[in-house]
């Protein structure tokens, strides 16, 4: 609930501005910057106490100019490599990656981010990572995963401002409790009164969503109203604490706010816990634990009865979730109880990611209401499934170590040619186009439908040995390596190596459904390290089908 | 090239800080705020001289509290209406819309924005519209249209910071020429030196893209590198000039920057002009004119020879576009020639939307290079197809007047029930679910694939006369009105009214392909105004197929 606080500490402690016995003392944050007001956005930076110390010990592999984390310049220019799906040339400078000057850290997301060309940092904007195309691709796929589920869970996306005047922050309570963590904004030359207004960059989306709720009268029949928002958020973390994607000043949340009646809370919590389970299962992260933080012992708002009803609903929902859960007595926020979801990663570290917080206060501050037979003030539920997308990406980067699931991967398939005959090159080029975007050549100037499948397909047509090209492709961790030689041109078939694809069992099931018993003899000759999936021989249509099925199954 | 400048005036004039004979004098902007430096972002606000005076005369229909443009509160609460695809209840308070207190302005996007619940404004953030769910839906569909085409045109999306330090803006030249139009940002309490740095909110994406280009050495084989970015941009327009979606402080561009060798410029321009044509045809806007602005007579950078080569390439590309074009001699930016695309809307007004600008200067300022046999400095092409998405939405709102094409529409289909029998209600509910998201009920806790079709389906199950419900649905301009009574339950069919769907001819073609000669007798009885497409009777599968085909054809 509070930024950078150790997990044992309570929201209540920050409210009182002191720490209790057993709480890890703060090392970095100035006491004035400990906010009272919280929301689903708050846990974003929270568990960096856990991740922080580790990554800070790691020296980023090769810093580029301007303080970036970017990959080193390639020493050698490849003969001809081109990304067909994205129209870029893609130097496969494998020798550098295969034999780095220093052994790559296999855990740190910053070193991996540089190695995989996912993001850089720059001294002109500390704490605001710049996502390179491959990093932006993963970021957007995570967004898309949530967006695809939003209609089923009743969320509607909205777009809200980045800047609000001081008055709004006073109304929301951020000004008193969060001011120092916000970036202050001022217009340029003051041409009129309005330009003199003080603005702040939003650290959270909740006030904007309250404005949208309030933009017209609401009936109880409309509730629950569920707004989702992926807007960029800014929090002025101290520069010394900034690190990679985990400790940042600019980040994006899969933020959501639910406005509902008090008796709808239980169902909303059940639904949100289902959403968490769905997304975490899909991303194959976990296991995770659930914690219920209850009414603070001393300072809180609202009657005991209201708290009891709310906590009972949360307990009911937790019982229905099928997960075990535990209570953190007295650790709720002063404005309402909450559920924390703590994820354990593959390396055994715990991260607080998702959060579900009940808020009785903000709707009152904004005078939100609903009318009907029993008019009332809605309860506001702050919730995030992934939390900070940047931070969740860091977790995924360290989990997958570049072996992204096919659907999420920026390097889905690469085509390697054997020999330099014109037929092979022509056939390989045609296959690259068809695999990247299966459309007829006569499609012409018609726009591609929004739902049209697109895949990230690269090629390596250099005049090198297949072994060398294969080593390069494997170092870059392409999910599928497709080999095309003269036999493939004659047989109209593709030799495919799936050895970098995670989720072997499920992938094999799909391969067996598409073409039972398919095997590629080439695998035996060329394979450097086969991780369980033998090479297969498929035609173009079968390959497209496998790619489609991998995406639809989130493999 | 300059903000708020009349179209006749030249970039060169602003460079010199004076206006020439015939140029409309500035009314609003302080001379200190006229920037020299420009880019594809600049024309965003440009043509508001044309749109501005009109919309400013129009009194916004019903201002909500807090200075919003929001719709008025509904007086009556409906019995039961629910949006199945988005899980919201949706009061169909048709009497208010059908009989407004004041006749709605049929042209102004602000009045339409309120009537159609697309966006609101708020005094806490002037010039930063808050998009309601339906407005956000349209915004995101426009984004999706461009994103779906990006791979074909070789663009790769990136994500870049909102804040940069003063140093970067000095390097880019914005500090000297654009400072007053930028929002100045400062960290809260200064805990260390870095927090004392002066930041500005970015008004353009170009510097961030230069940082990404520079993050590693580039080979000539990698070029062209094409970055796309939808980030929120901020420009500190004077508050008195702010208006709806056309004159804003926060906006989003479909921004793109191409880094290429000098001899690739021609092909890139040809490709960009094709992109413009593709998107404008898809959105059914136009016609549009092309203008080539050439080397300024006095102040410019670069040799005459470089300019000539660049202009010749632009002329070649324009000749290949198949459009007529004209020259604006001496009206290029001081750093390079450019092509302006001027769109004529249905009401005969002209808008500068897309822009393609060559830039020889920024790559030099950032020290960008490419290596190879002939190393050099890349040419940077700033380009935007829609320009400001907000402003383009204003244009589309006024063009379609709520009759959105099906693929873009936030109100795609509504189901009206006849009678109150349990069978009818059950069948209508089932149809609503199936039409909103065609999945088997047994799908359970599996995530929906990213490509899964979703439609915006609302329902009106109130115990009202069909005529009244139909009037409500027509007032809300649903593309398809689906009527379900007892006959439909027995016959497992849907009576569909397509009369609000634009592009009648193309829609009829699709209907005839799905079910030749389909007619609904109900249309004759219930229709209030049939605009050309007669009612049809289809089963569930046929209806789903029609919806899919309408989306895929951008109808």
UniProtKB/TrEMBL annotation, chains A, B:
PROSITE patterns reported for this sequence: AA_TRNA_LIGASE_II (PS50862)
Residue spans of biased composition, Polar residues class: 7-22, 80-96
A cellular component term, taken from the record's GO annotations: mitochondrial matrix
GO biological process assignments: threonyl-tRNA aminoacylation
Lyase found in the keyword field: no
Known catalytic reactions: tRNA(Thr) + L-threonine + ATP = L-threonyl-tRNA(Thr) + AMP + diphosphate + H(+)
Location of the protein in the cell: Mitochondrion matrix
Cross-referenced InterPro entries: aa-tRNA-synt_IIb (IPR002314), aa-tRNA-synth_II (IPR006195), aa-tRNA-synth_II/BPL/LPL (IPR045864), Anticodon-bd_dom_sf (IPR036621), Thr-tRNA-ligase_IIa (IPR002320), ThrRS_core (IPR033728)
Example GO molecular function: threonine-tRNA ligase activity
Sequence ranges assigned to domain Aminoacyl-transfer RNA synthetases class-II family profile in this UniProt record: 133-405
Keyword Membrane: no
Annotated stretches, region: Disordered: 1-104
EC number: 6.1.1.3
Keywords, ordered alphabetically: Aminoacyl-tRNA synthetase, ATP-binding, Ligase, Mitochondrion, Nucleotide-binding, Protein biosynthesis, Transit peptide
Entry's family note: Belongs to the class-II aminoacyl-tRNA synthetase family.
Alphabetized NCBIfam families for the sequence: thrS
Protein name per its UniProtKB record: threonine--tRNA ligase
């Amino acid at each position: 609930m509070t930024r950078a606080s150790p997990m044992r500490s309570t929201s209540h402690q920050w409210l009182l501005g002191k720490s209790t016995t057993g709480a890890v003392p703060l090392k970095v944050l100035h006491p004035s910057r400990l906010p009272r007001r919280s929301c689903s956005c708050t846990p974003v930076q929270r568990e960096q106490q856990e991740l922080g110390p580790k990554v800070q010990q790691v020296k980023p592999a090769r810093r580029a100019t301007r303080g970036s984390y970017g990959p080193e310049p390639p020493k050698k220019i490849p003969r001809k490599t081109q990304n067909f799906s994205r129209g870029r040339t893609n130097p496969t400078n494998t020798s550098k990656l295969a034999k780095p000057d220093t052994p790559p850290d296999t855990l740190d997301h910053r070193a991996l981010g540089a190695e995989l060309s996912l993001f850089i940092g720059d001294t002109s904007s500390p704490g605001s990572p710049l996502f390179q195309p491959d990093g932006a691709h993963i970021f957007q796929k995570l967004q898309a995963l949530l967006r695809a589920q939003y209609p089923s869970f009743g969320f509607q996306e909205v777009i809200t401002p980045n800047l609000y005047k001081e008055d709004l922050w006073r109304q929301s309570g951020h000004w008193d409790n969060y001011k120092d963590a916000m970036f202050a904004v001022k217009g340029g030359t003051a041409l009129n009164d309005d330009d003199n207004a003080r603005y702040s960059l939003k650290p959270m989306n909740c006030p904007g969503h309250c404005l949208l709720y309030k933009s017209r009268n609401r009936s109880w029949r409309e509730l629950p109203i569920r707004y989702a928002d992926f807007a960029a958020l800014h929090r002025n973390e101290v520069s010394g604490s900034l690190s990679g994607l985990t400790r940042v000043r600019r980040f994006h949340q899969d933020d959501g706010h639910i406005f509902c009646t008090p008796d709808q809370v239980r169902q909303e919590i059940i639904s949100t816990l289902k959403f968490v389970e769905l997304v975490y299962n899909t991303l194959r992260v976990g296991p995770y634990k659930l914690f219920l933080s209850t009414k603070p012992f001393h300072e809180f708002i609202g009657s005991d009865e209201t708290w009891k009803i709310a906590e009972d609903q949360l307990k009911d929902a937790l019982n229905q979730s099928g997960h075990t859960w535990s209570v953190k007595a007295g650790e709720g926020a002063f404005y309402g109880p909450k559920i924390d979801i703590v994820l354990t990663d593959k390396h055994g570290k715990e991260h607080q990611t998702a959060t579900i917080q009940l808020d009785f206060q903000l709707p009152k501050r904004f005078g939100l209401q609903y009318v009907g037979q029993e008019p009332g003030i809605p309860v506001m539920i702050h919730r995030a499934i992934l939390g900070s997308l940047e931070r969740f990406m860091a977790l995924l980067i360290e989990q997958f170590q570049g072996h992204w699931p096919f659907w999420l991967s920026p390097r889905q398939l690469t085509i390697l040619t054997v020999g330099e005959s014109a037929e092979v090159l022509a056939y390989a080029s045609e296959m690259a186009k068809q695999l990247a975007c299966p459309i007829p050549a006569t499609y012409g100037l018609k726009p591609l439908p929004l739902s049209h499948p697109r895949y990230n397909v690269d090629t390596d047509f250099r005049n090198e040995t297949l072994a060398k090209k294969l080593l390069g492709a494997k170092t870059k961790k392409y999910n599928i390596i497709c080999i095309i030689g003269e036999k493939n041109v004659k047989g109209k078939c593709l030799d495919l190596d799936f050895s970098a694809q995670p989720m072997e069992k499920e992938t094999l099931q799909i391969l067996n459904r598409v073409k039972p018993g398919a095997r590629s003899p080439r695998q035996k000759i060329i394979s450097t390290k086969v991780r369980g999936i033998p090479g297969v021989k498929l035609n173009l249509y079968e390959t497209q089908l496998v790619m489609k099925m991998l995406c639809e199954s989130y493999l």
